[in-house]
Structures are given as C-alpha cells and as structure tokens.
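S.,

Sequence below, as promised.
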Amino acid sequence: MRKSGSMTEGPLLPAIVRFSIPLMLSNVLQVLFNMSDIAVVGRFAGPRALGAVGSTTILVTLFTGFLIGMGSGVNVVTARYLGAGRHQEVSRTVHTSALLLLITGLLLGALGFLFTPALLGLLGTKGELMPGAVRYLRIYLLGMPAMAVFNFGNGVLSASGDTRRPLLFLSIAGGLNVALNLLFVIAFQMAEAGVALASAVSQYVSAGLIVLSLARRPEAIGLHRALLRLDGGISRQVLSISIPSGLQNAIFAIANLFIQAGVNTFDAVVVEGNAAAANADALVYDVMAAVYLACSSFMSRNYGAGHRDRVRKSYLLCLGLSFGIAAVMSAGLVVFGRAFLSLFTGDGAVVEAGLTRLRVMGCSYAFSALMDCTIAASRGLGRSMVPTVIVILGSCVFRVIWVFTVFAWFHTILSLYLLYIFSWTITGVAELVYFLHCYRERMRVLET
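The prediction came back faster than expected:
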C-alpha cells in the first residue's frame, strides 16, 4: 500500500501544488476533447457546423459534469479510508465504485441518446442547426460509459496521491482525438459526426488505459475482476457524496439551459460568438476544479488521519490558490481574447460577439472560487447534500429568476452575462456559512 506521504505529513502548499498540477493538465485535456471538436468544425466545416456543435455544449457539460461529480465522490470515500489505514474498506470502495460508475455511464448514454431531439428543442436550437446538433450529440453520448469509467479510475488514483497516470492517459487520448478530428473532418468530410466519433473513440482509449493501470496494482486500490461486486454499505457512502456532487455539477448546466435559451433569442452571430467564447468557461472552471479536488482529497485524507490543523489549512490554501488561478487566467483571456476566439472561427463578427462574453466573464471567474472551493471542503468532511441544496437555490433558482426578470426587462446580452457574478457571490457566502458549521461539528468529533 502506498503511504499517505505528503498528503498527511510535511509542508501543505507544495504538496497541494504537486497534487493539483497534473490534475489541472488532465482537466484541460478533457476540455480539449470538446474544444478541439469546435475548433476543427469551425475552421474546416464552416459557421453552421460550429453553431451545431456549439449548441450542444451545455448538454455535453451537463452529462460530463455529472460523471466528474460522481468521480469526486469516489475520491472522497477512498481518501478517507486510505487516511485511516482501513485497506479492506478501500478495496471494497474501489470495486463497488467501478460498477456504480459503469452503470451510471450506461444509463446516461442511453437516456441522452433517446431524448437528444427533445433536449435540444428545449434549448430553442435553431432549425438550421438542429440536424447537425442531433447527429453530434448522439454520437458523442456513445462515449459516456467510457467517460464514467475514466472518472472512477481518476478518483481512485488521485485519492492515493497519484495524479500523473491520469494525465498521461489523457495526453495519449487527447492526441488521438485531435488526429482523428482532422482525419474525419478534412479527409472524410464528416463534419459534426466526425468530431463526435473522434471524441467517443478517445474516451474509450483513456478508459481502457486507466482500467489496465488499476488492474496491475497489487495493493488495496487495485482493480480485480473477481472482486467486482456491489457492497451495500459502501454503495450508500459513495452515492451519498457522489450523487449530490454530480447533481451539483449538472445543476449548473441545467441553469445554463435557461441562459442558452436566452442567448438563442439573439441572431445567429451572437449564438455562434457565445459558443466560441463559452470554451473559456470550461477551460477556467476545470483548471480551478483541480484545486477543488485537492481540497476535498487533502481534507478527507487528513480528517481520516485525525490531523485537525491540516484540515483547516488545506481549505484556506486551496481557496487562495483557486482565486489566484482564476484571476491570472481571466486577465489572460481579456488581453488575448481575440487570439483565443480566432482558434474557433475566422468570422470577424462572430469574434466581436464572443469578445463581449469574454470581457464580462473575465471579471467574474474569480468570484466562483469561494463557492466551489467551499463546497469541495464540505464534501471533504463528508457533507454533500446541504451544499447541493444551497447551489440549487443560489445558482439554479436565482439564475432562472434573473432570466425571467432582469434579462426579460433589459433584454441585452450584457444583462444576461452579469447573472454569473451575482449568483456566484450570493451562493459562495451561503456555502461559507454552512461550511463553518460543518467544520466546528467535525472538529468536535475529532476531539472526542
């Protein structure tokens, strides 16, 4: 069994940074799967294909966000048992979680495939974009089982402190994805179908590599076919954190469905500019998400080991780190926004429309750190349901109300984009109040 090492001993900040950097790069590669789809179709298949693929971004985020959240639940439970040195429970968690995530991926893929036209219709997808959007999303959803398995493996390996192997596997799959995108779109003229197929194939490659890696591990985190079974107690623990965590990620996407519907009330240039600029959201969020996973992992591991002071310091360091990362990336996007958007389109009008979003969001991203890092901290202490309820109220409900009041009154794209910073700030303050309550409660438990 690999020892806790720097997760429970030694200086915290260097350990958190070493842990987070491979995760950041891994998350960026996952974003690049969809981003490269949009870039290739935008540059080589035209604005209509760009709009079709871009119209599915929120739905892709909904499904993938749910699976990433499920994987973070696996991470928290595995890290807690590793910190406590309970190796038998670690093994049961690994094998139960593998089945739970696989089943979840199959269900998401099947349901998404079946209801693709209805979901795109709810978004108000324009008629000329609908055939390409349906074609892209249905093929993309074929990769959901593989994505679920990868996020399971990523959760297990990162709980053990190994964030480099997932990065290596995603690097291989990401390179394959870009190569297949170019082959299918340029050589075979497959447009939306080609980039979707490339993404699905790449997902199965990354899943296969992570399964093989776990199968070769002899210790408790090893994955062995003979031990695959659903343990009732472990299932309840994993699902009690995974489902709220997955729903939290999905809730943002659901709220964004209303935002996308608002965007769709403008002309096609605004829709396409928004689709290009929205790629920055996933890029910034997922880099910050690496720090959030570090926060929940370090807090859970140290809580399991009974290290009170390191639990508190892990939260404060991760909060500062995530805020700083968001500020730096936001500044870069504002300064180099035109160059960033040119990766996805050569249409000057579309670039100008995208710049409006980038400038507003560039002043907003850092405010999401308080909310998301505090949610991760509560999850690291085993509390996931109440933070999810707060997110529903502060982000989903608040955003819907904003769309039907403030945006409906002004009906400008600026009034639509401003809802992000307001919802993040309100939700973040509420999450902090709840976390402080959880922290005091958990510290009393450690004292006794």
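The CA atoms of residues 398 and 423 lie 7 Å apart.

Coffee later?
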